[in-house]
Amino acid sequence: MIKTCLDYHRETSYERHRMGGHSLDWSNQPALFKTYEGIKSLKLPREVDLPKQRLSSILLDKTPGKPCTEINLATFSKLLLLTCTLTAKAHSREGDFYFRSAASAGALYPTEIYTATLGVAGLEDGLYHYALHEHGLVPLRTGEFEASLMEPKGSADMNLPVVTFFLTAVFFRSAWKYRARAYRYHLMDTGHVEENLILALKAQGLSYRASYDFDDDRVNQFLGLDAAREAALALVFLFGQDAAPEGKGERPIPLPESILKASRVSARETDYPVIRDIHEAGKRRMPGEGRNAAMPAALGVGPTEWKETEPAFSWNEIADYPDCVFMRRSRRNFVKQPVSKEHMEGLLQAMCASEQGKYDESLAAGFLSGRVEGMGKGFYLLDRNRKVAGMVAQGAYVEPMARICLDQDWLANAGVHLLLLADLEVLDRTWGPRGYRYAMMTAGRLGQRLYLAASAMGLGCCGIGAFYDQEARELLGLSETSRLLYLVAVGEVKRR
């Protein structure tokens, strides 16, 4: 029985020479779009005015968002378009494949989006599923829903949300390929989508809050999910001006079985008990209030000297923020050319541009410098809160890390490997098993941000969640309970 973050991570670790054979059953490939039989979707407008800011201006802007005084259907549509949309189509023998603006492990896209609306002009109040492939809304409930339904007791010190976004994961979509390890990708991929949503809200100057703390069973029932196949992982509130009412705490009326059936995405779904174990364990929340995980100091390694990261005068961006979202790709045709000093400073600024809180505290960051202008080769840690970095060890790390990442040789050509790490025992001790959600979704958020920053600066970028876990720990010299969670390679690429 999996009871802790460390239990799950160890159970699903990859080991060289012990990788069991696993062929994909293409006849049982999961459906990539969730559909509801007999319910017609409401089409959203696509012709909307998109923001013209640079990505750097959005990330570095510390101005607090304002409560939403009015939201119309065009603005609502714009938020969803910038959160996740289809960006291109390719043909293969298995059929048409659609690229998306949010990254996903194996392009399996487990994340679904739901939204509860209250006062969106031109839209009846209710709960909707976002039909991505149609850019439409599928109505699931009608009426008003109090914020207390989505929030745990004691956290209603906020205005009433005019829109609440729910991000879920359909388990079998990723498990079809990655089996028990898939829960890692459920969380990271949800973080990818969440980062796009938060950037869209920031670009509009709106007041929001993201939460990974809620009553799992109540929210899953509210959304009409088959909780054995699909589960809510993150909520994002868009606040209005009215104060939230005191909640009564009643459970939502269950939705019909026909709606629950939509969580099934394949005729023959394989159940992986380890995924259910860690997700169920994560339902037990520990307050963690007043505690500081001090994650950078918990890894068992550290630099002898920290230096302030130099603010980039300019990221040398070649595209506006919306284009960065729509053009995002996993580009890994790296060439052995150095990443410029300005570009590296931009990447570090992007990593540090976060609202510091307990979710950010669940994670540590670092990087392996391979070819970076003005920077020696080696392993560095980055303290995102203090905006300082320091070399842990000098030497060639990029090449051996490429071998550890399942011998993907192209990784050795990247200029830098950005690392997201955590001490899993500290997660368990500070927040319990739910801390795993905090760390992995935060890793996904930062990974997506690096994708967009690389796209803005004309660099290649590719995220890696598959590696020999113990070998990565040993290469970096991490403590016995610390692990690499996510690696994002960035560098110059071949030009067309």
Poorly predicted regions are 152-156
Can you summarize the main beta sheet?
7 strands, antiparallel
Strand order of the largest sheet: 1-8-7-5-9-11-10
Tell me what portion of residues adopts beta-strand conformation.
15-25%
Number of domain modules: 2
- C-alpha Rg (nearest Å): 22 Å
**What name does the CATH topology of the largest domain carry?**
NADH Oxidase
Q: Helix segment count?
A: 16
- Secondary structure class reads alpha+beta
Number of beta strands: 18
**Which CATH first-tier class of the largest domain would you pick?**
Alpha Beta
What is the chains' assembly state?
single chain
- Give helix % range: 25-40%
Shape label: globular
CATH superfamily of the largest domain: NADH Oxidase
What is the distance, rounded to the nearest whole angstrom, between the alpha carbons of the first and last residues? 51 Å
Q: Could you characterize what this model shows?
A:
By secondary structure, the chain is α+β, with helices and mostly antiparallel strands. The protein has two domains: 5-281, NADH Oxidase (3-Layer(aba) Sandwich), CATH 3.40.109; 295-491, NADH Oxidase (3-Layer(aba) Sandwich), CATH 3.40.109. 30% of the residues lie in helices and 23% in strands. The protein has a seven-stranded antiparallel β-sheet. Strands 12-15-14-13-16-18-17 form a seven-stranded antiparallel β-sheet, with helices on both faces. The protein has a two-stranded parallel sheet with strand order 2-6. Strand 7 (126-131) and strand 8 form a beta hairpin. Helix 5 crosses helix 15 (435-456). Residues 152-156 have low confidence and may be disordered.
